[in-house]
Amino acid sequence: MSTTVTLNGGAAVAAPPSGLDVGVHRLEITALNRAGVAGVLDFGFGVAAPLLLNLAVPGRPGIGPVRRWMAERGTTVFVRLEAGRRRGRRAATLVDTLAPSYAYQAGQIRVVDGDTLDAALGLGYGLGYAAKLRLAGVNTPELATVPGVDAAAWVRNWLVARRGSVVVRTVKDRREKYGRYLATVEAGGESLNEALLTAGVAVPYDGGRR
């Protein structure tokens, strides 16, 4: 039997500090002028959106630093969503990283079984995504067994105790054999995946035969 856990009223809001770099996206810039920066933002999950942004280099306002950033790194850059708008446009800040983490805060999670979750993720910029997740690196007993029921209850209790601070990190666009996105679930610097192993609720799993 599945259980739905509402983590913050069902809406994805700004997450508390996390070990994951939340809300960093890949941006392919197509135009840069005084009107702003136009480009296509990649959210993972096969979701992309064309946007006009007011983009800035941290601590260095103006379009000049953005041009110099692009001259050094090219038209594919990484950005983080900022609250509110600048000059009527969505605000974002350039991030010095090699790749986005595809980490997002979860609004509502349905516990399917001990290692499978349905999660409503806030991607930022007003976009959300309903993702079916498979906890990476772990395997719990089948739900048709008593240990499987206990594992699902253990996961639900873990999530409820950390409501409002749960972050999901996925492998971009990578699904396992049943169509689920591989994911790490974290709250306050603690990993659900690791906690399941430490508690003996799950065993390590590399995706092969069980």
What profile does the largest beta sheet have? 5 strands, mixed, barrel
Strand content: over 45%
Average residue pLDDT: 83
**Assembly classification:** single chain
| Structural class category | alpha+beta
Work out the radius of gyration: 19 Å
Helix content: 10-25%
**Which series of helices and strands comes N to C?**
EEEEHEEEEEEHEEEHE
What is the count of β-strands?
Answer: 14
Shape: elongated
pLDDT < 50 stretches: 1-18
Number of helices: 3
Strand order of the largest sheet: 7-8-9-12-11
Q: What is the rounded distance between the termini? A: 22 Å
Structure keywords:
210 residues; alpha+beta; 5-stranded mixed β-barrel; 3 helices; 16% helix
Care to describe what's here?
By secondary structure, the protein is of the alpha+beta class. Helix content is about 15%, strand content about 50%. Strands 7-8-9-12-11 form a five-stranded mixed β-barrel. The protein has a five-stranded mixed barrel with strand order 2-3-4-6-5. The relative contact order is 0.20. A hairpin with a 2-residue loop joins strand 7 (about 105-115) and strand 8 (about 115-125). It is built from three helices and 14 strands.
